[in-house]
User: What shape does this take?
Amino acid sequence: MGATSATQHDTGSGPDKDRDVRGGRRGRLGRIARSPLGWMLIGMAGVGLVSGLTATGPGPVPVLGAAAAVAVYLWVMRRLAGRATPETARPGAGREVLLGGGIGLGFILVSALLITALGGYSFSWAGNGFISVVWATVVMQIGAAVAEEVLFRGLALQALEQLWGSRAAIVITSLFFGAAHLGAPGASAWSALAIALEAGVLLGAAFLWRRSIWFVAGLHFAWNTTEQLLGIPVSGHTPEGLFTVDIHGSDLLTGGGFGLETSIVPVLIGVALAVPMFVLAHRNGGLKSRRHTGR
Assistant: This one.
């Protein structure tokens, strides 16, 4: 009996040792999952899966997908990241959506009007069913805006911010956001850089200023919806909108077949909007340095 016990101890076998090994592995996996990069990747995988299954679904499916994406986000942040989520607070959410939506609407309308005034665009009524086009556009863009903002601003920006601070997080997420559009028809190095500047930087600055998913989702939604309803190509895809647009002149002015995002006009306007947002975020304490970021 004593010899057998000694042998078990020496060889490292037995049920207690097996439980310790399994417990140690679970502990290490848990620590990885609770680290910023861990919960970021788990959350992005979950939200990406939900979005992939619902983005082009019929009827209200994309909206249900947006709700599911938020649910995944809340679970990851509370169970893995171990933090509250004031950025998804329901009080004031409507106000944040409207404020962000107003900025997004103005951004696209001013950009399109300037390009039109410079001879780049001309519009004509498409003659498509008004209600059906608006409904399909709104439903699809709700799903896209919420999912992308949860992915890039909710998960990626906040995880990287914990590791390296707000400024580094903005740079990394903006470049990644631009690179994510390289698979679109007609994409190029310039289109990726333009989207990184006007969208990645602007939406990142908007989040740091308001610290609200609803604000950036409203801005993103109004941006894409307005562009699509005007009939302007969106990331290389020509949408079914209320208007058709004829494009004239240089691609630098109009964005060419890729769409408004690669025009120099919204790039400059987007950067001009982002600057005061960064200033306001700094004044409000919304910019965090690496040494001040916590779990």
